[in-house]
Amino acid sequence: MPSLVQSVDWTALTPVVIPAALSLAVLVADLFLPRRHAPLLGWLSAAGLAAALLTEIPLRDGHRTTFCQTGGASCSYAADHFALVVQALVLGGALLTALLSVTTDPRPAPGAAAPTGEYWFLLLSSAAGGALLPASRDLATLLVALEVTTLPAFALVALRRGDRLAGEAALKFFLSSVTATAVSLLGISFVYAATGTLHLTGVAQGLTHPPDHLGTLAKTGAALTLVGFAFKLAVAPFHFWVPDTYAGAPLPVAAYLSVVGKAAGFSGLILVTVVAFRPYADVWGPAMGVLAVLTMTVGNVGALRQRPGVERSAVRLLAWSSIGQAGYLLVPLAAASSADSPAHEIGTTVAYALMYGVVNLGAFAVAALVTRTAPAGRLTDYRGLYASRPLAALALAFFLLCLAGLPPGIIGLFAKVAVFSSAVGARHGWLAVIMAVNVVIALVYYLRWTALLFTRPEQAGEPSGELSPAVVPGAGPAPALAGTPAGLTAAIALTAVAGLVLSGAPQLVLRYAQGSLL
Amino acid sequence: MNHTALQYVLAATLVLPLLGAVGALLPPPPGLRGRDPGQAVLRHGVTVTGAVLVLTVVLAAGFDHDHPAKMQATTDLSWIPALRIHLHIGIDGISLPLLVLTALLTFLCALYSYFKPPEGPSPKAYVALLLLLESGTLATFAVLDLMLFFLAFEMVLIPMYFLIARWGGGDRERSALRFIVYTLLGSVIMLLGLLLIGVKAGTFDMVALATDNGSSLSHSTQLIAVLAIGIGLAVKAPMWPLHSWLPDAHTAAPTTGSVLLAGVLLKMGSYGMVRILLPMTPGGMHTFAPYLAAFAVVGIVYGSLACLWLARPGNGGDLKRLIAYSSVGHMGFVLLGIATLTRTGVNGALFANIAHGLITGLLFFLVGAVKDRYGSTDLDQLAGRTGAALYGRAPRLGGLLAFAAVASLGLPGLAGFWGEMLAMFGSFHPGAGLSRGAYLTFTGIAAFGTLLTAAYLLVVVRRVCMGDRETAHAPGALADVRGYEFAAWTPLATLTVVTGLWPATLLGLTEPAVRTLLGGH
């Protein structure tokens, strides 16, 4: 009888283990660290996430697997290229969130004693879950990873104590997420019943020829599992929790959810559809297409309807736009169902997500900067930003144009071109045309915001022919302008430089759209 | 000049405005500060656009005029292998005149703005946007990769949007949004067509695709591609009935914005048709050509009628809007020339392209000058009871306006004549397989359109230039053409005469290239 003890390849696991271990370490350290050294924890977390990112370098050949069944070929953890790229996105996103949080402290007021260790613990454990998710290769690990990613997120959302909105947001998020998980679990149990395995590749084999009397069960199971993942990705019609949650959450947490939450959702969806439910491609393919269309349309129209004067309208707009962007992420998935090599199309989604991650985090970083002086977070607070903070305004304009996909945001343009190309290549002309219309709708609100940055700050907005105003009267309390925290500056600079470099060399991310990742 | 040097000159032409745009945003170096920051940055704009103009002239001088059909100064570097996108640039007899025209018009605009700074926010951003616009337009005419073409096509949107929305007048924000939404919708649909060609043919290389002459694309693919790409280009050109963004954009745009919009941006549409649709999808183009021609002639008549209506007393017509509608008519001739699928017609179209750029650019400059002097471009306000009497009050300005107007109506001997004549001539003998009868009708309608064009332009000249000097409603004394205005307008007027008297300068460049593009036709 072969040994039942699995040998564990810890090297492959480092990107997951480091944040997980660090989260515990931070929690403990918080107990013993004097209060005045509390910011150290933030920098420690950021350093840990950066280290986790670095440990991916030795893994980059992408052939490591671990937690394998003894004797069998199925493994529960695979550090393949897909996993590594999504892990990089998750860890990078968490790192930027950490940089944002070091400064934009989610605590309600200076006096209130909310332990910061708690915040870093939650962030790191969620990141650990997010890093585990793309590498999991069985349904149970996948679901556990998904829960590890989202459960700490509820607490993060609710962290802004004393804020009624935050509590409501967290509750909304929690309830919808728990429902999603329950539905997924039910689906997974059906699939397990029909196929007798939880390993993704095994499921695919099992579903190819399911026992006759279990065919319906298997199909129902597949559908229910997908519903759960669609919830997390905030695919329409499961998107309703997003705007309230983002608007209610502390800004860095909203940024985190919009990127890492999405990354977790779509990587789970990819693994489940393309690997496990491959035999049902003819069913989920069109379904993904319909969901993509719904999601992008709902998101973009929702964003278009945001009134600039309302409180937190900036974050709300980013929330709706993130729904719209999730729609674009699904387009290559729809194309993958009919493509000869689905893995190829998946790469397009990953490439788009990388672009979106960098750019969206950048936009949130600038939003965090502006919120420091204008806590209401209205879109109108961005009027005339160029006059008071030219670099931040230029960066935000660049990020927004990347999201819109217009030059000078070249990387955004080519990421969209890649998505269009995958739709056209898969003969999904209708999908491409609807997406084209959506791109135009999205342009309107992105451009409105961009234009606002360069409008003169006076309410009248009438040009009087004089040269650039040096000082903006009444644009916010002046003292707060001084001394932008280092973390925030670093986050904006990092994302802006990344965006510019990618615009010069889009191949850096688009190469994933070329080869097969899985 | 040898090939390597030309390569570098072409690359520098495209990169220099981009660097200049970045430079405009930086603080000026010590020693170049000038009187004030505004003046320094406007001077920077003149320097950069001037350098670009010099580069394009060098390019034109180094161009091998014996082989204008051959792509010259080509550079081909792989940029994004994942999407098979190459940094492939080069020029031939079709793109060279457009490059020079773009560089010239932008330079003149920069020069004009230096002496007459635009009314609006900081000139810093203005210069940066102008340079960005220039690099996008130049790139459109020089790239040889479909995806790069799309990129360049999109690159002009943001600068133009802000030029209209920030430095414009009237209902500028709305007009600017309308401009960008229309063109973006068109260009995204165009992208789908370009991708379709790329996916089916396996390459985005425009030279390879043109040489291939559509043989690797099935007829139905070609039909869809022509429809999608055609819509995008037709919005830009603009073709009736997709033109409705143009009059608003022109009316709201600042003078230089109007000049560049009419002079260069519209050409991107017609250039795309000649460069992409004609050689790459000849089959699809053959099917759609009669429809294109029909829309073109409707545009000619529609534009002229709209102008006639605007020119009538009591209708409150705006001069800028009138010239915008006249652009719809003139671009109708360009589209008609392309739709004939003959060498004569396409050459005429390319000629009319350049001529329209020169003449309409000049007209917009002149109308801008009129607006500066009278404070309005409303014809009724200008003309008063008998006419604005520009001849009497500012004789040189009036003379130039009359000159531009008769050039625009196609007086033989001036640039406007040849293009429209050749387009109609091509339509008289359309390409093989096209219905002669239909095209004869189109020719007739187009000819009628020239009459209408003459009619409204003469009405405009009468109402603006003539009139009783004493009764003319105008504030105080009028300044005649100033020095910098002369500097900005003389090149355009001169070139209008030169190309009118000696059309072979242009036709000699385009003819061989067109023959190659049309393949066996």
From TrEMBL, chain A:
<feature type="transmembrane region" description="Helical">
    <location>
        <begin position="79"/>
        <end position="100"/>
    </location>
</feature>
<keyword id="KW-0874">Quinone</keyword>
<keyword id="KW-0813">Transport</keyword>
<protein>
    <recommendedName>
        <fullName>NADH-quinone oxidoreductase subunit N</fullName>
        <ecNumber>7.1.1.-</ecNumber>
    </recommendedName>
</protein>
<keyword id="KW-1278">Translocase</keyword>
<feature type="transmembrane region" description="Helical">
    <location>
        <begin position="317"/>
        <end position="337"/>
    </location>
</feature>
<comment type="similarity">
    <text>Belongs to the complex I subunit 2 family.</text>
</comment>
<feature type="transmembrane region" description="Helical">
    <location>
        <begin position="391"/>
        <end position="415"/>
    </location>
</feature>
<keyword id="KW-0812">Transmembrane</keyword>
<feature type="transmembrane region" description="Helical">
    <location>
        <begin position="221"/>
        <end position="242"/>
    </location>
</feature>
<keyword id="KW-0520">NAD</keyword>
<feature type="transmembrane region" description="Helical">
    <location>
        <begin position="427"/>
        <end position="447"/>
    </location>
</feature>
<keyword id="KW-0472">Membrane</keyword>
<keyword id="KW-1133">Transmembrane helix</keyword>
<feature type="transmembrane region" description="Helical">
    <location>
        <begin position="40"/>
        <end position="59"/>
    </location>
</feature>
<feature type="transmembrane region" description="Helical">
    <location>
        <begin position="12"/>
        <end position="33"/>
    </location>
</feature>
<dbReference type="Pfam" id="PF00361">
    <property type="entry name" value="Proton_antipo_M"/>
</dbReference>
<comment type="subunit">
    <text>NDH-1 is composed of 14 different subunits. Subunits NuoA, H, J, K, L, M, N constitute the membrane sector of the complex.</text>
</comment>
<dbReference type="InterPro" id="IPR010096">
    <property type="entry name" value="NADH-Q_OxRdtase_suN/2"/>
</dbReference>
<feature type="domain" description="NADH:quinone oxidoreductase/Mrp antiporter transmembrane">
    <location>
        <begin position="136"/>
        <end position="441"/>
    </location>
</feature>
<feature type="transmembrane region" description="Helical">
    <location>
        <begin position="283"/>
        <end position="305"/>
    </location>
</feature>
<comment type="function">
    <text>NDH-1 shuttles electrons from NADH, via FMN and iron-sulfur (Fe-S) centers, to quinones in the respiratory chain. The immediate electron acceptor for the enzyme in this species is believed to be a menaquinone. Couples the redox reaction to proton translocation (for every two electrons transferred, four hydrogen ions are translocated across the cytoplasmic membrane), and thus conserves the redox energy in a proton gradient.</text>
</comment>
Automatic annotation (TrEMBL), chain B:
<dbReference type="InterPro" id="IPR003918">
    <property type="entry name" value="NADH_UbQ_OxRdtase"/>
</dbReference>
<dbReference type="InterPro" id="IPR010227">
    <property type="entry name" value="NADH_Q_OxRdtase_chainM/4"/>
</dbReference>
<comment type="similarity">
    <text>Belongs to the complex I subunit 4 family.</text>
</comment>
<dbReference type="Pfam" id="PF00361">
    <property type="entry name" value="Proton_antipo_M"/>
</dbReference>
<keyword id="KW-0560">Oxidoreductase</keyword>
<feature type="transmembrane region" description="Helical">
    <location>
        <begin position="40"/>
        <end position="63"/>
    </location>
</feature>
<feature type="transmembrane region" description="Helical">
    <location>
        <begin position="322"/>
        <end position="342"/>
    </location>
</feature>
<feature type="transmembrane region" description="Helical">
    <location>
        <begin position="348"/>
        <end position="370"/>
    </location>
</feature>
<protein>
    <submittedName>
        <fullName>NADH-quinone oxidoreductase subunit M</fullName>
        <ecNumber>1.6.5.-</ecNumber>
    </submittedName>
</protein>
<dbReference type="GO" id="GO:0016491">
    <property type="term" value="F:oxidoreductase activity"/>
</dbReference>
<feature type="transmembrane region" description="Helical">
    <location>
        <begin position="94"/>
        <end position="115"/>
    </location>
</feature>
<feature type="domain" description="NADH:quinone oxidoreductase/Mrp antiporter transmembrane">
    <location>
        <begin position="145"/>
        <end position="430"/>
    </location>
</feature>
<feature type="transmembrane region" description="Helical">
    <location>
        <begin position="438"/>
        <end position="459"/>
    </location>
</feature>
<keyword id="KW-1133">Transmembrane helix</keyword>
<feature type="transmembrane region" description="Helical">
    <location>
        <begin position="176"/>
        <end position="199"/>
    </location>
</feature>
<feature type="transmembrane region" description="Helical">
    <location>
        <begin position="219"/>
        <end position="237"/>
    </location>
</feature>
<feature type="transmembrane region" description="Helical">
    <location>
        <begin position="397"/>
        <end position="418"/>
    </location>
</feature>
<feature type="transmembrane region" description="Helical">
    <location>
        <begin position="288"/>
        <end position="310"/>
    </location>
</feature>
<dbReference type="InterPro" id="IPR001750">
    <property type="entry name" value="ND/Mrp_TM"/>
</dbReference>
<keyword id="KW-0812">Transmembrane</keyword>
<keyword id="KW-0472">Membrane</keyword>
<feature type="transmembrane region" description="Helical">
    <location>
        <begin position="135"/>
        <end position="164"/>
    </location>
</feature>
